[in-house]
């Protein structure tokens, strides 16, 4: 689970610039895009489980944390 999650900016609907710290790595100003989950998983920010079709955010690009997923409600309702 992420130890740090902060929203830097919302450049457009469905896109967020986040700072995320995970396992000692810091990803600052990383772009994340909103999409529908293709399979079940666990939110890396809250630990909450989600099912296919849930709205989530995932990193844009080929970073080490590319498998991380964050429930959209945690970002959209902030």
Written account of the structure:
- By secondary structure, the protein is mainly beta.
- Helix content is 6%, strand content 51%.
- The protein contains 1 helix and 7 strands; from the N terminus they run E-E-E-E-E-E-E-H.
- The chain has one helix spanning 72-76; strands spanning 4-12, 15-22, 25-36, 41-42, 49-50, 55-59, 70-71.
- The chain has a 5-stranded antiparallel beta sheet. Strands 4-5 form a two-stranded antiparallel sheet.
- Strand 2 and strand 3 (25-36) form a beta hairpin.
- The mean pLDDT is 91.
Q: What fraction, in percent, of the residue positions are helical?
A: under 10%
Total strand segments: 7
- Regions with little confidence, pLDDT below 50 for 5+ residues: none
The major sheet is characterized as:
5 strands, antiparallel
What overall form do the CA principal axes indicate?
Answer: globular
Strand order of the largest sheet: 1-2-3-6-7
Distance between the termini: 19 Å
Rg, alpha carbons: 11 Å
Mean pLDDT: 91
Work out the strand percent.
Answer: over 45%
* Estimated structural class: mainly beta
SSE pattern: EEEEEEEH
Number of helices: 1
């Amino acid at each position: 689970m992420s130890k740090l999650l902060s929203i830097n900016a919302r450049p457009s609907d469905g896109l967020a610039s986040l700072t995320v710290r995970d396992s000692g790595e810091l990803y600052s100003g990383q772009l994340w895009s909103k999409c529908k989950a293709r399979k079940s998983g666990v939110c890396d920010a809250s630990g909450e489980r989600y099912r296919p079709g849930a709205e989530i955010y995932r990193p844009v690009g080929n970073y080490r944390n590319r498998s991380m997923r964050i429930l959209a409600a945690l970002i959209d309702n902030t």
